[in-house]
Each structure stands twice: as C-alpha cells, then as structure tokens.
C-alpha cells in the first residue's frame, strides 16, 4: 500500500495526486451581476459547457450546451480552449484546436455561435487548420478581426464576408502580432486594437529584416535535421523595426504614425486607443529603456504629439496600469519617481499630476478603477514583500489606502474584479496551503460562494509528512536584511547536521521568496526535505520584491555581480547562525536566470557551494536578447567589463565542486549555444562535470512523454548522491 505521507518523483509526475485545478475561464456579464464559466459536460468530462450564475439569486443555468457546439457531421463537440462573448451577447466566439507558438498556444481555430438561431460556423474561410490568431469582436458586435499568416482580416459575423486589411505579411513582415523578442520580453502577442466606434483597427507592424537569424536544429522529427529559423536579436545587435499604423475596418490604405527616432533603436511596448476613435496613445521606449514617451497619434494624418515623458536613471518597467478616466480627460499611471512605485492621476494635457497613493511601499499593479464611486483598487503588501493583498484608495488623492483583504488570511491573494467592483473572483494560497478560488463581495470581502476548492489536492497535501515553511530574514551586514524561506526535514532535530540546498533566481524580473503555493516545484522541494535535505531560498537586492526603487534597481549594470555577492554573504550568514547546517554539504540549483546564478555561485564561491545544478542557464550575457539584457545592463559597448564580470563563463576555470548542466536543444529562449559554449570552456580548463541534453525540448523542458519525470528523477538522484553522502 502506498505511503500517502511520502512524496516521490513518480507521485509528482506520473499521477494526478497533486494536480491543481483552476477556476474558469470565467467572464463577467451584465455589468458584473452575473458571470459565465466552463464546466464539464455530464456525459463527457473532456467537453465543456458554458454556464451562467446570477450572483443575487444564485440561479445556475446552462447557456451553451455541448450539442450546441457540435459542428454538423461531427461526432463530438468542440473542445473549448477559450471563449468570448460579443458586446451585445448575441454571439459566442470559441477558440479551439490550439497550437503552440513559442511560449503559448496562440494559434488555432475560431468558431462563431449565433445564440438566437444556434448557427455554428467556422471563421477564416478557406484557412488551413490552426492558423488564426487573436480573434476578437468589434465593439459594435458586427465583425470579428483576426490574424492569419501575418496579415489582418475582418469577417462579418452574419454574412461571413471576409476583408483582408493587410497584404504585405511575409517572412520578414509581421502584421498584428509580434516578433519573438517583443513576445518574450514585453508579453506582446495580440498586436492590434479595434477603435471604440468599430471603424478602424490600429496595429503593430514588425520588419525583422536586418535582425540576424538563429537556427534551432531539430534532429529528432525526421530522417535529416530540420532547421528552424528564428530572428533573434542578441545583445548589441540589430532589432526588428516596429511601427504603428491604422486602417479602416472596411479596407483601404494604412496610415502610419509619425514616430521620431530609429525604429530599430526604439521600442513600442504599448499602444491603444486614447479614449476616443480619433487618437491612439503610443508608448515609445528608447533602446536603453530609461525613457518612455507617451505620444498621441492623430488617426487622420498620422501626426503625433508628445503627451508625457517618464524617465529613470536605471530602467523603466512597462506596465498595464494606464486607465482612462473623466471621459478621456485623465489617465492613471504607475511610477517610482519618488522612490516607491505609486499611482498617479495625470490630466490629458499632463499639466496636472496627482499622487494617489502615499507612503513607503510599492503598488504592485492596478486591479480596477471604479470611477462612479471614486475608487481605484490595487495589489500591495506594505509590511511583507513576500505577500500580496488588495487595497483601494480614493481617486481624489486625499485618502489613505484601505486594505480590503482580511488581516487573518496571510499569504498571496489574487483578484479579478467585476466591472462595477462589487464582486470579485478571489484566489488565496500560501506556502503551506494550495489555492482556493471563491466569489466574494466588495468592499466587505464576504465569501459568497466557493468556486474551486481543490479538494483532492488539499487532502493529499494535508497528510504529507512535512514541516511548515519558515519565512525569515538574513542579515548580511550594512543594514541589509534579505527575505528568505526554509523547508526543514520532517522530525527536524536541531542537534543533527543536515545538507543545505539553495534554490536561486537572482535576476531583476522575478523573486523566489513568495508566500504562495508554488505547485510541483515546491512539492519537489518538500520531497527533498523528506530525504533529509534542508531547502532554502533567499532574495537579494536587485530582485523584483516590492521594497522600493532603490532595492529593485540596485543591480542596474551589475546583473550577476551584486546578486552573486549578496547571495554568497547570505549563505555564509545562514551557515554561521544555524548550527544544524553542514557547511561541507551546501548545494545550489536554479533554472534560466537561476541557472546562471547557480553557475556564478559555484564558480566564484567554491568554498561555499559544493554541488550545483544549472538548468537552461545563460552562460554568457552577450548571448541573450536585446530587450531583457540591455534593460538591466546597458549596451556591451559602454559596459563591457560588467558584461564579462556578470557572465559565469569567464569564471568556469574556478569550478571545484560537483556540477550538473541541463539544457533543451530546442530552447528558443536561452539557446543551446549557451550550454555548448560553457561545456567548451570547462573542457578547456580540464574541469569535470556532468551534463544532460534533452533533444528538441524548449526552455521549459516539458515536451515529450515522461520528460518531466525523467528530469526531476535525474536532479533528485544527483542531489542525493552528492549532498547526502
């Protein structure tokens, strides 16, 4: 009989014991008085139906049954990947048969269901399967626009008439979606916007000509290798040229906006309509990403005027916190210009700038703006950077922020507020407890209905033999206290000596010390603790923790330098202050930027770290992409020494301990080139190490049968062999 208190690699990756269920996708309807969501059909669990819930009455109704989404002649209903209602609620848009494009499944088939007569039709005319992207309704509900093979199309929902708006989409020209680096670093995938009056579409166009091509080699899917070309701008090289145009939804010539500056040395991370159908608002970053110009573009002639300029001595974080208010006469904005990331209200003329949030804390993001009642809702955690809570503050800038999340629910809280901010889908978890999603009322935060309890996961986790996660601070001197967590072995004995494994990231784009449920990676750490290993993680300065601008941007032009030094100091302080740590058995592991940090720690501090696993690591910062690396490091031409000092490859000759390198050969993000270059350097210096290549796997190393299990079994065995000896 299986021991339910113990974790194994097989339990984690070959069973569903610890799978987490997410609620939805859900959509607010009727201005937030009701919502719709997907639920399994009683006769077929794989097929989802769309149900509605009335919040005031609790009434549940099937809006779209399985037989309504079964195309004529098919023996099975469509498998809904995602869905959207038309603004008038007369049509349903279904996304299905999705395929992966780099990181996400953004390409697929779209079907349109006319609710009144039950007519179900596929969009795209003679399009090949799984070739449409980002279909969305016009505000007047009369048409749907989508991307097909790098061009923009509009299809009338009743007549089915298709109008092709752009025709120049080709190998180097991309309309309405983005190139690789914008998708990865600015999260720009859907790159076109309907005007409020449904008459125009504004869109990005990318020209990748001039961007050098990196070839990913697929050796496993055919008799001979297949080369996958990827226009990928590495640090200091030529970017794609991007520009913004607007075209009538009925067809015609595109008007291009007059945006000054070399389009290959500037970025346009954000664009949308400026609360009217006459102007668009364009955000333009310079290449160093320390200046953001907000430009108003005139639809008629393409002229632009500068509305507002945000500047920083380090870098500017691009955000989605711009919301138009007062009929388009003002907008919300996030900035850390005063040392903390705060909310501002800025007039359309930029003459009036009102600070909305006050105090020494960071606003993490805006959740909603409810103008009628005069409130803006946001996520923050003034007292504990590892947690997340909901606050609101008055739009007049005179009130103090009110915490709405109950004080007796520590951890991480995420919300999706209704349009009127009276209700929210609320998910709560912490490092010891899996997520529960519920429907709540606001501002009283009262529970109305539990939507997803994750009952089976909660039960399986509750019986595990484990110690609760301990959160603590590490004093590394000079009045610097770093956040950390610790997972101790069950039946921990402070008089014993235990091996210690650090989990690291250490880059400016994320943090590891978070009081939330981290899924199977967290459970794998608990499994290692059950084997007798103490597992810890520490966030140095320069990571994304909401501890103020100076904290977050202290690693500017020193990525891999400052953080390496501080994490090593933290390890020394922990070893000194915790007698149960065996200083001769200290290990470290990380993925991506965490893999790079693992290498830096192993090479620069071999006296501390004796064993390391680096997964998908950037061994040389010059091999990574322009937008990410230059944002934090500047250009190699003006920061050459720091690029060398922050790259682990230059210190490979100092390796002394046990090192396992792991990489996917099909990694489009951190290329296999990084792995091979480091292997060459280690071999040149006669350093012995272990390595594992996963053929044709991407940055996540999850493709293919049994991959996740194999990967974690490999890492487990390596750690047990080298830390438990």
Give the secondary structure arrangement, pairings included.
Blueprint: H1 9-14, E1 27-29, E2 34-41, E3 44-54, E4 60-64, E5 82-85, E6 91-101, E7 104-114, E8 119-122, E9 132-137, E10 143-148, E11 151-156, E12 162-164, E13 173-175, H2 180-186, E14 192-194, E15 200-207, E16 213-218, E17 226-231, E18 241-248, E19 255-256, E20 266-273, E21 279-286, E22 291-298, E23 304-311, E24 324-325, E25 330-335, E26 342-347, E27 353-355, E28 363-370, E29 375-380, E30 389-394, E31 402-403, E32 412-417, E33 423-430, E34 433-441, E35 446-452, H3 455-462, E36 470-475, E37 481-487, E38 498-503, H4 519-530, E39 534-539, H5 549-552, H6 562-577, E40 581-591, H7 593-604, E41 611-615, H8 626-633, H9 640-645, E42 658-664, H10 672-684, E43 690-694, H11 707-723
Parallel strand pairs: 38-39, 38-40, 40-41, 41-42, 42-43
Antiparallel strand pairs: 1-2, 2-3, 3-4, 5-6, 6-7, 7-8, 9-10, 10-11, 11-12, 13-15, 14-15, 15-18, 16-17, 18-19, 20-21, 21-22, 22-23, 24-25, 25-26, 26-27, 28-29, 29-30, 30-31, 32-33, 33-34, 34-35, 36-37, 37-39
Helix pairs in contact: 6-7
Main sheet summary: 8 strands, mixed
CATH level-1 class of the largest domain:
Alpha Beta
- Percent range of helical residues: 10-25%
CATH architecture of the largest domain: 3-Layer(aba) Sandwich
CATH fold category name of the largest domain: Rossmann fold
Q: Roughly what is the average pLDDT, rounded to an integer?
A: 96
Quaternary structure state of the chains depicted: single chain
CATH superfamily of the largest domain: Alpha/Beta hydrolase fold, catalytic domain
């Amino acid at each position: 009989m299986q021991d339910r208190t113990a974790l194994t690699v097989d339990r984690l990756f070959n069973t569903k014991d610890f799978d987490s269920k997410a609620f939805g996708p859900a959509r607010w309807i009727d201005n937030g008085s009701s919502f719709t969501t997907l639920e399994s059909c009683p006769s077929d669990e794989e097929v989802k139906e769309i149900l509605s819930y009335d919040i005031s009455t609790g009434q549940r109704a099937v809006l779209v049954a399985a037989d309504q989404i079964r195309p004529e002649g098919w023996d099975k209903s469509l498998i809904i990947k995602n869905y959207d209602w038309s603004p008038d609620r007369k049509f349903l848009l279904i996304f299905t048969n999705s395929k992966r494009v780099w990181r996400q499944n953004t390409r697929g088939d779209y079907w349109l269901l006319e609710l009144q007569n039950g007519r179900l039709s596929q969009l795209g005319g003679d399009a090949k399967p799984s070739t449409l992207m980002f279909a969305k309704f016009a505000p007047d509900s009369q048409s749907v626009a989508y991307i097909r093979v790098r061009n923009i199309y509009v299809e009338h929902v009743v007549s089915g008439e298709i109008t092709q708006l752009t025709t120049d989409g080709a190998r180097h020209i991309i309309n309405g979606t983005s190139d690789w680096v914008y998708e990865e670093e600015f999260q720009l995938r859907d790159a076109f916007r309907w005007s409020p009056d449904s008459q125009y579409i504004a869109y990005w166009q990318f020209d990748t000509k001039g961007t050098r091509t990196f070839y990913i080699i697929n050796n496993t899917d055919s008799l001979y290798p297949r080369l996958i070309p990827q226009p990928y701008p590495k640090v200091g090289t030529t970017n794609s040229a991007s520009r913004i145009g607007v075209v009538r939804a009925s067809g015609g010539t595109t008007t291009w906006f007059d945006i000054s500056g070399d389009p290959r040395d500037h970025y346009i991370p954000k664009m949308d309509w400026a609360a009217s159908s006459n102007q668009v608002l364009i955000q333009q970053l310079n290449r160093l990403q320390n200046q953001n110009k907000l430009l108003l573009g005139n639809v008629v002639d393409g002229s632009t005027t500068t509305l507002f300029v945000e500047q920083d001595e380090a870098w500017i974080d691009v955000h989605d916190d711009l919301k138009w208010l007062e009929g388009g006469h003002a907008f919300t904005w996030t900035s850390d210009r005063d040392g903390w990331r705060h909310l501002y209200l800025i007039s359309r003329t930029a003459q009036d700038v009102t600070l909305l949030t006050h105090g020494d804390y960071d606003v993490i993001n805006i959740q909603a703006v409810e103008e009628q009642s005069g409130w803006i809702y946001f996520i923050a955690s003034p007292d504990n950077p590892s947690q997340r809570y909901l606050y609101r503050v008055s739009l007049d800038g005179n009130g103090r922020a009110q915490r709405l999340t109950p004080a007796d629910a520590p951890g991480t809280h995420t919300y999706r507020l209704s349009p009127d901010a009276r209700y929210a889908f609320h998910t709560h978890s912490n490092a010891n407890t899996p997520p529960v999603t519920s429907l709540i009322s606001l501002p009283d935060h009262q529970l109305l209905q539990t939507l997803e309890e994750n009952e089976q996961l909660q039960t399986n986790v509750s019986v595990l033999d484990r110690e609760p996660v301990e959160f603590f601070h590490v004093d590394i001197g000079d009045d610097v206290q770093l956040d950390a967590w610790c997972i101790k072995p069950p039946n921990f004995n402070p008089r014993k000596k235990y091996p210690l494994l650090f989990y690291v990231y250490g880059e400016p784009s994320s943090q590891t010390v978070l009081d939330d449920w981290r899924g199977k990676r967290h459970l794998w750490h608990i499994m290692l603790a059950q084997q007798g290993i103490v597992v810890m993680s520490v966030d140095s300065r320069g990571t994304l923790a909401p501890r103020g601008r100076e904290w977050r941007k202290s690693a500017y032009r020193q990525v891999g330098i400052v953080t390496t030094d501080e994490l090593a100091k933290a390890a020394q302080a922990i070893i000194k202050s915790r007698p149960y740590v065996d200083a001769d058995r200290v290990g470290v592991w990380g993925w991506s930027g965490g893999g790079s940090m693992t290498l830096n720690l192993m090479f620069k501090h071999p006296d501390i770290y004796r064993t390391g696993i680096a997964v998908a690591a950037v061994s040389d910062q010059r091999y990574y992409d322009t937008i990410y690396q230059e944002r934090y490091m500047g250009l190699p031409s003006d920061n050459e020494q720091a690029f060398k000092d922050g790259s682990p490859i230059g210190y490979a000759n100092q390796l002394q301990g046990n090192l396992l390198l792991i990489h996917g050969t099909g990694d489009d993000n951190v290329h296999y080139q990084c792995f091979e270059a480091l292997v060459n350097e280690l071999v040149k210096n006669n350093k012995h190490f272990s390595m594992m290549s996963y053929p044709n796997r991407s940055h996540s190393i999850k493709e293919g049968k049994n991959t996740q299990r194999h990967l974690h079994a490999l890492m487990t065995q390596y750690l047990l062999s080298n830390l438990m000896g």
